[in-house]
Every structure is written in structure tokens, then in C-alpha cells.
Write a structure and sequence with these properties.
The complex is a heterodimer of chains A (286) and B (108). Chain A folds into two domains: 33-75 and 169-285, Cytochrome Bc1 Complex, Chain D, domain 2; 78-164, Orthogonal Bundle (Cytochrome Bc1 Complex, Chain D, domain 2). Chain A contains eleven helices and eleven strands. Chain A has helices at residues 4-20, 64-71, 78-89, 100-104, 107-110, 131-143, 153-164, 180-191, 202-208, 240-250, 261-273, and strands at residues 33-34, 38-39, 43-45, 54-56, 120-122, 127-129, 213-214, 217-218, 229-231, 236-238, 283-285. In chain A, helix 8 (180-191) crosses helix 11. Chain A is globular and about 50 Å long. With 108 residues, chain B is an all-beta fold. Chain B has a single domain (6-34, 43-107), classed as Immunoglobulin-like (Sandwich), CATH 2.60.40. Chain B is built from no helices and eight strands. In chain B, strands 2-8-7-4-5 form a five-stranded mixed sheet, with no helix packed on it. A three-stranded antiparallel sheet of chain B has the order 1-3-6, with no helix packed on it. Chain B is elongated, with a radius of gyration of 16 Å. The termini of chain B are far apart. The chains are: A alpha+beta (286), B mainly beta (108). At the A-B interface, helix 3 of A face loops of B.
């Protein structure tokens, strides 16, 4: 009888090891280096006041294949939209006969770091502006062109191109400008507001359950440093406000309009939450 | 993406007999023909249906592509190079358009 004991103990030990072994759903411990040259910050100390100790890029929650797509700028399908954005940058549009390049010159120098600091306080409008709103402002005021409609293909490509000029730079917004602080508060309220028939807040999934699965989808912290993002599911670029609206729709609530005050406040707050992570645009996600 | 734009990546140099990695990507919507528009009419199929790669006229890689391939098809394959020359790439669209690209390689 005694002889059998070690076998049994070993079997129990094995079962215990299986139960507490690394859960498959955790974010991976991996380094994102684009083209073997550009090292990206995918984990960093969370900003003061954040519920997390460490903020993690959504890249760490994706599969090995998806991660590899982003690490090689040739394979990254989002780079096609960066190229298209470069064409738009140099295209003359509107009654004033100007292109972006007419005033801003080479985007590689004039736009370097710009996208990493949006949304930004816009004193004239009395609200925070993201890149999309800023571009539309520039188009109407300086180019005398039609503003882009939300999620127009050209809008997504141009935003992707401009944001890409800041790749690898830390995302950081200035909350001391204008009334940004109260927009941050409003965004925070929105983040913790339960909504829809499913009664979910942003925080339910992205704060309490990141690293877990919601059906087949691996939940991340919901950081926005990779937007606009190439989503394999849509086989297209997805803008941040499109993603906000998609997420809110999935809670079975009525999503606010793109660039509405609600979503602009949310953008301010969520951007702050991921502060310090590298801009990854165009990131590749599931 | 209005006009499909091919992109290829081949090492500039290699030693004779070396196996090099060739990467290709083309922007294309790859409309499967299975979807319907808002009025319920089928959206006609428009995909890249064939891809070929040749080296100085010799076939290196080719494949037929079917509607299940995602947008912006990407191909990566290996090729053994013995001498300097040019890789020629060709994508054939459903509407008969052919998109081409080429890349030189120096073998020393």
C-alpha cells in the first residue's frame, strides 16, 4: 500500500501544476521591435492616479502571428494606408489651391511628434481637438476644401500618415491646457458609466477583466496608442471613434456620434490612461 | 484603395546558391462576390486570381487565388539564387488588369 503513495502524490502534484500553470490568456512577455531597429515601449509605469501599476500595449495581448505582422513594416498592411496618406499630403485640394505640404512641407520633420500629443486643447473651439478635427479645421480654414466626413477613406489614411510620423515616441497629452482637466473628469465618468442592455462600462472589460476572454476576444487594457489601427477583422484601418462606437454598440447601448463631446472626453481620458506607451500607428490587431 | 499598388522586398545582394526570402504585398480589396449591398444586390466578385514570380524568365513561384483570401494579399516564399538577375512579379485581377513589379538582385 505504501508503495502507491508517491505515485498518487505525484499525480496530485501534476494536477495542481496544471491548474496553476501560466494562464494562456495573460498578456505575453515579448518585446516589440519594428524591423529589428525601432524599439517600442509596450509596458511602462502607469500615470499617477491610474488604477493600474503598469500600462500595457494591446500588442501584448495579440497572437504571435498578429504580433509578427506589426513588427515587420513590410508585412504590416497598415503601411499601405500610410503610403496613401503620403499621397494625400501632397495632393492639392480646395479653392485655395493648397495641399498639406504647401504649408507644412515635409511631414517627416514638420509632423514628427505632433500626433503623439493629441487630443489637444483648442482655444478657438473651446474643446479638445483630435487629429481628425484639426485636419478638418485646416481644410476649411486654409485649403478652402470640404471637411472630411467621419471615417472617409482619405481621412483615415491621412490621420494614419500623420500619426505614423510619431512612431516610437511616447504618447503624452497636456491636461493643464485650457479646460482639459474638466474634459478628463467627464471622460473618466463616461469610462466608469455602465451602459446598454448588457450593463457594461469600459472599465468592466478593460480594467477588471483585461487578460481574460470575452467569448473569442482577448481583452486588453484598451489603450489607444496604436490608432488608427489595422484590424484584421475588418481588413481595413479602424479609427478610434469607430472603435469607441463599436465597443459601445456591443454593450447594446446607442453609441454617441463620432467626435461628440462624450467621445472627445473619453478620448482625452483614455489617451491619458495609456500615457508613456509608444505610438504604434499603424498597429495591427485582431 | 483605388489602384492596387504592388510592393516587393528582395535582398539587394546575396551569395551564389543562397536561399533568399522574397516578400510581396499588394493593396487590393479582394471583394469575394458573396456579399450584398444595402439594396440586397450581390456585389460582383473582384479579386486577384493569380500571382506569379519569375527569375530571368524561369518560374519561381505561382499560385491561383480564390475568394477566401483576405484583402491586401501577402506572399512570402524562398528562392535559391545562383546568378545576378531580376525577379519579375505579376498579379492578375478579375477584370483582366495585370499589375507588375520587379526587383534586381546582385549575386557575388
Amino acid at each position: 500500500m505504501n508503495k502507491k503513495k508517491p505515485v498518487l502524490a505525484a499525480a496530485i502534484g501534476l494536477m495542481a501544476a496544471m491548474a496553476i500553470g501560466p494562464a494562456q490568456s495573460d498578456p505575453v512577455d515579448d518585446k516589440l521591435v519594428i524591423d529589428g531597429e525601432l524599439e517600442m515601449v509596450t509596458r511602462t509605469k502607469a500615470p499617477e492616479g491610474s488604477p493600474f501599476e503598469e500600462v500595457l500595449s494591446g500588442w501584448l495581448y495579440r497572437t504571435e502571428e498578429t504580433r509578427a505582422l506589426e513588427a515587420d513594416s513590410f508585412q504590416n498592411p497598415g503601411m499601405l494606408y500610410v503610403e496613401r496618406g503620403e499621397e494625400i499630403w501632397n495632393e492639392v485640394d480646395g479653392a485655395a489651391g493648397k495641399s498639406c505640404a504647401s504649408c507644412h512641407g515635409e511631414a517627416a520633420s514638420s509632423m514628427k511628434g505632433v500626433g503623439a500629443h493629441y487630443p489637444k486643447w483648442n482655444a478657438a473651439a473651446g474643446k479638445p481637438y483630435n487629429l481628425e478635427l484639426k485636419i478638418n479645421d485646416c481644410r476649411t480654414a486654409n485649403m478652402e476644401a470640404e471637411p472630411y466626413k467621419f471615417d472617409a477613406a482619405d481621412q483615415k489614411a491621412l490621420v494614419t500618415y500623420i500619426k505614423h510620423q510619431s512612431i516610437g515616441m511616447p504618447m503624452e497629452i497636456d491636461l493643464s491646457a485650457g479646460d482639459m482637466q474638466s474634459w478628463w473628469e467627464r471622460g473618466k465618468e463616461r469610462y466608469y458609466l455602465r451602459m446598454g442592455q448588457l450593463n457594461l462600462a469600459c472599465a468592466t472589460c478593460h480594467e477588471n477583466y483585461n487578460g481574460h476572454y470575452i467569448r473569442a476576444d482577448h481583452l486588453s487594457q484598451g489603450n489607444v496608442n496604436g490608432f488608427p489601427t489595422y484590424r484584421l477583422k475588418q481588413a481595413n484601418m479602424v479609427s478610434l471613434h469607430n472603435r469607441f462606437r463599436g465597443c459601445i454598440r456591443d454593450t447594446r447601448a446607442t453609441p454617441p456620434k463620432a467626435f461628440s463631446d462624450d467621445l472627445m472626453a473619453l478620448e482625452v481620458y483614455v489617451t491619458w490612461r495609456g500615457g508613456g506607451l509608444s505610438i504604434e500607428t499603424p498597429a495591427v490587431r485582431q | 484603395m483605388a489602384t492596387p499598388k504592388p510592393r516587393v522586398k528582395v535582398p539587394k545582394t546575396a551569395s551564389a546558391g543562397e536561399i533568399v526570402t522574397v516578400k510581396t504585398l499588394i493593396s487590393h480589396e479582394m471583394e469575394s462576390g458573396q456579399r450584398k449591398d444595402q439594396n440586397g444586390n450581390a456585389i460582383p466578385r473582384k479579386i486577384i486570381n493569380k500571382f506569379t514570380c519569375t527569375f530571368e524568365g524561369e518560374p519561381v513561384f505561382s499560385c491561383d487565388i480564390d475568394p477566401a483570401i483576405a484583402a491586401n494579399p501577402y506572399f512570402e516564399f524562398a528562392a535559391k539564387v545562383e546568378k545576378s538577375g531580376t525577379f519579375a512579379f505579376e498579379w492578375v485581377d478579375d477584370d483582366g488588369s495585370v499589375y507588375t513589379a520587379d526587383a534586381k538582385i546582385e549575386v557575388n
